[in-house]
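Dear colleague,

Thank you for sharing your sequence with our group. We've completed the structure prediction you requested, and as agreed, I am returning the results in plain text so they can be pasted directly into your records. Please verify that the sequence below matches your submission; if there's any discrepancy, let me know and we will rerun it promptly.
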Amino acid sequence: MKGQEWYQADTVAEEYESKRFSRGGRLIDRREKQAVLDAIGPVDEKKVLEVACGTGRFTVMLAERGADITGLDISGPMLQQGREKARAADVDDHVEFMRGDAARLPFPDNHFDTVLAMRFFHLADTPAAFLAEMRRVAKEQVFFDTFNRFSTRSLYNWALPMGSRLYSRWEIDRLLDGAGLELAEEDHDWVLPYGFYRKMPNELAASIRSIDTAIGGTPLGDKLASVSYWNTHV
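Please find the predicted C-alpha cells below.
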C-alpha cells in the first residue's frame, strides 16, 4: 500500500486530523461524514466494519448513532487515537479497534451488515483484492470512495510525493463486476481537490466551496468531480 511506513508513524497519527480537518478541512470532514450517513442510513444495532479506519472519525460517529462497529487498520498509532476518541465520546463499549490487513480480513463470510472504507482506495495497490475481501465479509452493503482520474485531482496528484491511485468510471465498473457487487447509488463532488481547501481559513474555504457546489450542480458537475462515493449492495 502506498505510504505504508509513513502512515504508521506516531507523529503522523497524532497530527493527522489537525492537519487535514482543521481550517478549510472542516468542510471536507462534514461532507465525508454526511456521505457515509446518507449511504448507510439508520445504523442502530447494525453490525458494521470500517476498513482502514485510521483515527476513528467514522467509527466513533457511527458508534454514537448506535452501530455495533469494528474499526480495522494497519497502523497501531492510528488505532490508539481512535480508542482515545471512543473513550472521550463514551462509546468504547460499542467499538472494537483491531490491527489487521485489509487484504486478509479476519472475519467469516457475511459477518457484517455493512462494510465501508473511506480514504483507502487511493492508496490501494491491489484494489480488486481489497474490494473482494470487503464483499466477502459483507452481508448487505459495501460503501467506499475514490479519487477520479479525469478531474483536477490528476493535476494535484502530479505534485504529490506519493501520488494517489485515480480511477476512471470504467475501472470502477470493472471492480464492482469482479467483486460481485451491484451499484445502488453514486454521488460525485469536489470540483477542486481536497488539498486546495486544507490550505485556506475556514471562512474563505466556505466561500470557495459555495462556488464549487454550484458548478457541481450543473450538467458538467459529475464529469468534473474529483471524488466519488459508491454505495453498493451484495
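Summary note from our side: The two ends are 26 Å apart (CA to CA).

Kind regards,
the structure core
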